[in-house]
Amino acid sequence: MARVSVEYKDHIAHVTLTRGDKMNALDDAMIKAILSAGQEVAASDARAVILSGAGKSFCAGLDMASFASMAQKDPTEWLMTRSHEDANEMQELALVWRRVPVPVICAIQGVAYGGGLQIALGADIRIAHPESKLAVMEMKWGIIPDMGGMVLLPRLVRSDVLRLLTYTARPIGALQAVEWGLVTKVSDDPLTEALALAEDIAGKSPSAIRAAKRLIDVAESKSRADVLSEESAEQVALIGKPDQMEVVMAQMQGRKPEFK
Question: Cα–Cα–Cα angle for 257, 258, 260, nearest 5°?
């Protein structure tokens, strides 16, 4: 059975974890399927991506069989190998969504625990059902978050919140997650709200949206001088080009832009 589906409609890629009967828990097949889906949409001409999970939950993290198989692997070889640029295979589950060149919106229902939360953190924006639960769950199993979480979490939450979540492994509700910065907003229908947001983004200049995502990544990781230089370089590549001219004409004519 396929673990992930990828569908395209109106310039939006819909990536759905389809192991809903198992709360989309991560086994080896699911891990491979998520990586493949991320790489596929990154290479596509989609203008936005919606990442969601079928069934009652977004993703409950590693399944129990995966924990058992972990114990039989050589952790040094498995985890220290940089198979995806600066990341190993498990880290790429979250970071692949940051490498996707267009905005990724994650819709969360049920639980996003452990690896499931870290995958969601890789998205640009997270919309969660008010009754959903999130947890940095790894300490429950005597391990630490190692799927890109320590790259992503410090950009989103205060240090004391990061430490509390990591040390205790306690689940928190969506409203607390919004207050602490793990979730962007709550919605009674996260998938519908994610679609509306994706449609809004897909109607913007495709080249400007991609430039904005690249620039934000630079802004979060580089020096002041690098950021200022990159702002200018990205703007030079946009001004007067077809997408930008179409935006201006559409604004002046009171219509929606049509990008070629």
Answer: 140
Give Dmax (Cα) for the chain: 64
Q: Comparing C-alpha atoms, which of 47, 62, 55 is closest to residue 13?
A: 47
- pTM higher than 0.85: yes
Q: What is the pLDDT of residues 6-33, one digit of tens each?
A: 999 999 999 999 999 999 999 999 999 9
At the topology level, CATH places domain 4-202 in 2-enoyl-CoA Hydratase; Chain A, domain 1 (3.90.226)
Instruction: Tell how far CA 182 is from the center of its chain.
Output: 12
Distance from the first to the final alpha carbon of the chain: 37
3-state secondary structure at position 107: strand
Yes or no: is domain 206-253 CATH 1.10.12?
yes
- Contact yes or no for 11/38 (Cβ under 8 A): no
Residue that the structure tokens 């990828």 belong to:
6
Select from 61, 38, 169 the least CA-distant residue to 116: 61
Q: What SS3 state is found at 40?
A: helix
User: What is d(CA 131, CA 110) in angstroms, rounded to the nearest whole number?
Assistant: 7
Cα separation, 137 vs 115, whole angstroms: 8
| Residue 258 to residue 204: CA distance in whole angstroms | 9
